[in-house]
Each structure stands twice: as structure tokens, then as C-alpha cells.
Write a structure and sequence with these properties.
Helices cover 40% and strands 11% of the residues. It is α/β, with parallel strands linked by helices. Bound molecules: zinc ion.
Length: 379
């Protein structure tokens, strides 16, 4: 028997149809499928592409550095023994063995200008705060023109993601340089930022954090705003183990600091340690169920440096300081290895690339940001 439909029944049918239509619309806007659920961004301050792709420079290796903790001749001899192999291929593998084994075979590395691959910053200043801000916000803001520890007027992609329910409380940043407090805008951003010599107290103490905070307070200080890299690195590792963040920043600083001190052996050792840290991170996350097979690692510096004997410094007066490199390793990134001429990449693309790996469209929200790097997303 057929029954006349009541107005309520018609309303129900209309709502069902509307739901299906809206569902179709929503699925049309759903970001592309991605396997990445977590991103770790490691930045190595002022690490030159020249050493990344050619290894230690044979012309710079014999130059004695300043006397710090030992005789400079001994430091130079050790650096030549560790990093002074006959060919550039051997030297780069000796300097950054993880980058030139795992990342080179399973990920992508941009910026080898000897092969015509171009990676650079767009901020026109070629020093740290503008470089980090460009990378983390996706654009160069002319107001960001000094290294003063001022609160960033712009939100980073970390702050943008932390404001979303699925990332809230899943974001953290650790850096050697105290100015990361300003770059991430610690007062506003809503997630833990720990930098410089500040003790880390944002989570209940563990024995490891207590020891790290003690070392931070008591270890000899060479730079007023920056402890040695092991301090922020191991603090970040402890946080990762305890809190399992989905988005983690680690900023290492010794490469830039030793370079400014004209200490090539110490600069090389800092780069080598940074590579070891990236390996430690990668192996740690592959041992943890939340991260295994679903984590992308991004590694890059905040600026380049001068060329040849101008290697130690950087900035607009030192040609080549805008030249950088960047590496990606994760489940969505095709294993294209060392990139050649073709795709030009800029640090302003990192924010949108990082967000896209997590299924989020940062460029749509912040149109002045660089576009996500499609090659890294496997598109
Ligand atoms: Zn510097």
C-alpha cells in the first residue's frame, strides 16, 4: 500500500540528498592521500652546500683553526684524517654518512650546483632569523631584517598546524639558538619552544631532563645565546620519547658558530655530528609504532655561506650566501636521490611542503607562501 509522504518525510529525503551532495563536495576538497602522519624538521645553521655535496674542501682543510681546547695542528691533522679522502664522493660520505647512504638512496637531496640543482633562500639577507622565518612561515617578510630576539609578527606553519584540533598539543620546537624563542613567537604560539640556556620545564621532569637542564646550566659557555648542540638535541629526543609529537623542530647551531670562529675542523665535526643526530632520530622513530613508516624527515640550513676563503661568513656582501640545500626522507617522497638540474626549490616552499605531507593546504591559507614541492609529495 502506498502512503502519502508527510512534509517531515520530504524534509528527511531533502536532507539525505543534501548530505550526499555536501559529502561529494567535501571529498572533492579532501587533500590527496598521504602516508605521512608525523614530520620532523631538522635545521643545521649555516651548513654550506659545498661540504654537503663535495665533502671537506681540500684547500681549506690544511688551514689551522684557532686554539680552543687543543693544539690547532692536532685538530687540523684529525680533520684531514677523518674527512680528507682523495675524491669528493669519498669525502662527502665520510662527512655525512647517513645523508649519503640512507637519504641518497631512499629520499631526495636538492642543491648540488655542480649538477645544476638550485636550492636557495628568497629573503635577500642571507642570515639566520630571516632564513628561519622564511622557511617556517613560507615567505620573506621585509620587516624581518635582523637577528634580534624579537617576537615574530607572523605565525609559523607550526603555529598554524597547532591551531588545528588534530595537531593541537602535538607540536614542539627545540633549538640551540635562543632566538628561536622569537622566531616561533613562544609567547603566542601555544606549543613548547625551548631554546638557548633556558631549562626545559614544560613537561613533568624525567631523570634525563633533569640532567640535561643541569648540564645546560653548568657547562662552559662559548656563545652567550647558544649551548652546544647535544643539549637541545637530547632534550628534543627526550620530549619525543615522552610526548610523541606529530610535528617536531630541532635547530642545531654549532656549524654556523664554529664557521664564524674560522675553525674549519670544528665546523666539519659539527656537520658530522648533525648527520649522526639525523641518523639517531631516524632509527629511533623507525623503532616506535606511532612513527614507523609514517614519518617524514626534512633537513636543511637557514642560509649558505661565502665561497672559497670566504667560507666562514655569510650575508649579502658574501656572494653565494643565498645558496642552500634541502633533503627529504619519508613514505610519500619518491626515491629520486641526488637531484640534478630541473626543479628549482626555495626555502619559502618548506612550510607548504611540510603541511602538504600532513594533508594540509598551507598555501591556500597563506597565499604569499611558496608552493609545496610536488616532487617531494610524489605528485
Ligand atoms: Zn651566522
Amino acid at each position: 500500500m502506498q502512503r502519502t509522504r508527510s512534509p517531515w518525510a520530504w524534509l528527511g529525503i531533502w536532507m539525505a540528498a543534501a548530505t550526499i551532495f555536501c559529502g561529494a563536495l567535501a571529498s572533492a576538497q579532501t587533500p590527496q592521500p598521504h602516508r605521512t602522519q608525523n614530520v620532523i624538521l631538522v635545521m643545521i645553521d649555516g651548513m654550506r652546500w659545498q661540504e654537503v655535496f663535495r665533502g671537506a674542501d681540500p684547500a681549506l682543510l690544511p688551514i689551522p683553526g684557532p686554539e680552543w681546547v687543543g693544539k690547532s695542528e692536532d685538530m687540523t691533522a684529525a680533520a684531514e684524517a677523518h674527512y680528507g679522502q682523495a675524491t669528493a664522493e669519498e669525502r662527502r660520505k665520510a662527512l655525512m654518512p647517513f645523508l649519503w647512504s640512507v637519504v641518497a638512496s631512499q629520499g631526495q637531496i636538492f642543491g648540488n650546483r655542480d649538477l645544476g640543482s638550485d636550492s636557495h633562500v628568497t629573503n635577500g639577507l642571507d642570515f639566520s632569523y630571516p632564513g628561519y622565518s622564511e622557511t617556517l612561515t613560507g615567505f620573506a617578510d621585509p620587516r624581518i631584517n635582523s637577528n634580534e630576539n624579537l617576537p615574530n609578527p607572523n605565525a609559523t606553519v607550526f603555529e598554524w598546524l597547532n591551531a588545528k584540533p588534530e595537531f593541537a598539543g602535538q607540536v614542539a620546537a627545540f633549538g640551540a639558538w635562543v632566538v628561536f624563542n622569537g622566531i616561533f613567537n613562544r609567547e603566542r604560539c601555544g606549543f613548547p619552544v625551548n631554546a638557548g640556556y633556558d631549562p626545559f620545564t614544560a613537561i613533568p621532569p624525567t631523570p634525563e631532563l633533569n640532567l640535561l637542564n643541569t648540564l645546560k646550566a653548568e657547562t662552559v659557555r662559548i656563545w652567550p645565546g647558544e649551548p652546544f648542540d647535544p643539549i637541545p638535541f637530547h632534550t628534543a629526543i627526550e620530549y619525543l620519547k615522552v610526548k610523541h609529537p606529530r610535528l617536531l623542530f630541532i635547530g642545531l647551531g654549532e656549524t654556523d658558530e664554529w664557521a664564524h670562529k674560522l675553525d674549519y675542523p670544528a665546523y666539519l665535526d659539527a656537520a658530522h655530528l648533525a648527520d649522526q643526530y639525523v641518523r639517531d632520530l631516524w632509527e629511533l622513530v623507525q623503532s616506535m609504532p606511532q612513527y614507523r613508516g609514517t614519518t617524514t624527515l626534512i633537513i636543511l640550513p637557514d642560509h649558505g655561506r661565502g665561497d672559497g676563503t670566504d667560507w666562514n661568513t655569510h650575508g649579502v656582501k658574501h656572494p653565494g650566501s643565498e645558496q642552500t640545500w634541502m633533503a627529504f626522507l619519508g613514505p610519500d617522497t619518491p626515491a629520486l636521490g641526488e637531484r640534478r638540474a630541473g626543479t628549482v626549490v626555495t626555502e619559502s616552499q618548506i612550510a607548504a611542503t611540510l603541511a602538504a605531507l600532513l594533508g594540509q593546504d598551507y598555501h591556500a591559507a597563506v597565499p604569499q607562501s611558496g608552493l609545496a614541492i610536488q616532487d617531494v609529495l610524489g605528485k
